[in-house]
Specification:
With 162 residues, this protein is of the alpha+beta class. 38% of the residues lie in helices and 15% in strands. It contains five helices and four strands, in the order βαααββαβα. A hairpin with a 2-residue loop joins strand 2 and strand 3.
Length: 162
C-alpha cells in the first residue's frame, strides 16, 4: 500500500479588507465605485479574453472609457476582473468592510485607497467584525441621551422602550 501526501496551491484566503475613510461621504463614494466596477467587470473583461493568437490582449476603448468615467485610471484588465469575483461589501458610516475568499485583491485595494481609505487586511478565520460592537456602543449612547462626539456619524432611529 502506498500513501501519497501532497500539497496544493488552491486555497481559500477568507479575507476581510477594512477601509476607514475621512468621512461618510468618501466611504459612500468608494462603495459606489466598487459596486459600479463589480457590475461592469464581466462585460468589460469578456471582450478582452485571451486567445491562442493573442494571449495578452490589450483592453479596448470601452474599457478605457469606463475607467475615465469613474475616475480610476490605474486599473489593469486583471484588476478589473477581480471585481467580478465573489465578495461582499458592507458600509457602516465612514467604514467599509469587504469579505472575499480570493487572494487577488489589488483592484479592491486601489479602489479604496483612491477614495482616501486607510486599509487593513485580516484573515476572516481570526476576525470578528467590530461593526456590531460599534453599533451597540452607539445605541447605548443614544439611549443614555449622549450623542457621539463625531457629528459625521449617521444617526440611528431607535424606538423607545416605553
Amino acid at each position: 500500500m502506498r500513501i501519497w501526501q501532497g500539497y496544493g496551491s488552491e486555497h481559500s484566503y477568507s479575507m476581510v479588507l477594512v477601509g476607514r475613510f475621512a468621512n461618510i461621504e468618501k466611504a459612500r463614494t468608494a462603495e459606489s465605485l466598487i459596486n459600479k466596477l463589480s457590475k461592469a467587470a464581466d462585460s468589460l473583461v469578456s471582450a478582452q479574453k485571451p486567445t491562442w493568437h493573442d494571449p495578452s490582449p490589450l483592453p479596448d476603448e470601452s474599457f478605457w472609457t469606463f475607467l475615465r468615467e469613474i475616475g480610476l485610471f490605474d486599473l489593469t484588465l486583471g484588476e478589473v476582473e477581480q471585481f467580478g469575483y465573489d465578495h461582499t461589501i458592507t458600509r457602516k458610516a465612514d467604514r467599509i468592510e469587504i469579505s472575499t475568499d480570493e487572494g487577488d485583491i489589488q483592484g479592491l485595494l486601489k479602489a479604496m485607497i483612491s477614495g482616501g481609505a486607510r486599509v487593513e487586511i485580516y484573515s476572516r478565520h481570526d476576525w470578528e467584525s467590530s461593526l456590531v460592537d460599534e453599533l451597540t456602543e452607539e445605541v447605548n449612547h443614544l439611549r443614555a441621551g449622549m450623542l457621539p462626539d463625531d457629528d459625521e456619524h449617521e444617526r440611528l432611529s431607535i424606538p423607545s422602550e416605553d
